[in-house]
Amino acid sequence: MRPLSIKVVSNKSLYIKWDEETVSSIELRTLRKLCPCATCSEQRVNQSPSYIPLYFEDQVKVEKLIEVGNYAVGIFWKDGHKTGIYEFPLLRQIALASNVVE
Ligand SMILES: [Zn+2]
Q: Does residue 49 fall inside a structural domain?
C-alpha cells in the first residue's frame, strides 16, 4: 500500500490518497503526538499513560513535507522539529487507528 499523494489541508490535517483509491485524513496534532523520531519516542516511554501533551500552535503546524526515499515522508514542523520520518505503513496504521479511512 502506497500513497499516491500527500498534502496538508488548512494546516489542520494530512490528506493521503492511497494507491487502492481510498483516502485518509489524519489530524496534524495526532501526527505530532506520534512523532517516530528517537527523542519523541523516548519521551513517550517515560510518560505516564494519562499524560496529555498540550502543544503550541507552531508544534502542530507543518512547514513542509519532504519525500524520503520511496518509503516515507518527513515532516518539518513550524517550531523547527524535523527529525520525524513517517514510513508509509506507520501512516496507514495511524490512519486506521484514527478510524478515518474512507
Ligand atoms: Zn519527534
A: yes
